[in-house]
């Protein structure tokens, strides 16, 4: 087994993309992040491929300040990949991926460094089977534009605080919302009598896949079906754009969303973990 640490995004993308695109549902986050890197909208902090007998059998990547993404690794790769990233002077803040491989990587990192591991988030990945839009929800959907950036930024920040307790992106909420529009994301607002009451994003289709999120409803508008309605609208947007797979993640600590999405046609695929390393 050979490991290659890449310093160039395109040099990484050439061997990594066929592996990632072979299972776009499992590798949904890596595909989105790498697409943003290739389009100059995201910076790379670590890029690594795993080769065996001339075949690419694994890949890992991360952006500055964020965990290493490991959905395209096997648990047996964990120790060697952690060693290779350490040799490349990578100070890893954490790991994110499907539960089994994320846990294996964290165990290898702890064995090498003695770091503590803290659970940032436990999530579940869902895929759309057949869309079942809710009925009887007042209002309608419209696409957001640059004139909505202040609102999108405000709700991005509120979502992050509710989801993680703090804003963690290196970009400001407004910069992140603007970048989302540049990348062709479907930014949708649900409005009642012209007043926005909920929002959902659907990533531009890549490898036949689009991922929904974030979905946000301000507290004063909750409990009226707006989140389900705007998520269904975002799902419809993704299907219209040609997505074969429409995905979304839920926080396992949030029973409301884990009940909501199956009602509009989503079924679970796998559970995932984001873990943080502390020295």
UniProtKB/TrEMBL annotation:
GO MF annotation terms: acyltransferase activity
PANTHER family, alphabetically?
AMINOALKYLPHOSPHONATE N-ACETYLTRANSFERASE-RELATED, AMINOALKYLPHOSPHONATE N-ACETYLTRANSFERASE-RELATED-RELATED
Q: Please list the residue ranges annotated as the N-acetyltransferase domain.
A: 139-279
Q: What class of enzyme is it?
A: transferase
Print the keywords alphabetically.
Acyltransferase, Transferase
Q: Give the residue spans that cross the bilayer.
A: none
Q: Could you identify this protein by its name?
A: GNAT family N-acetyltransferase
Q: Which organism is it from?
A: Pseudonocardia alaniniphila
N-terminal signal peptide: none
Write down the EC number.
Answer: 2.3.1.-
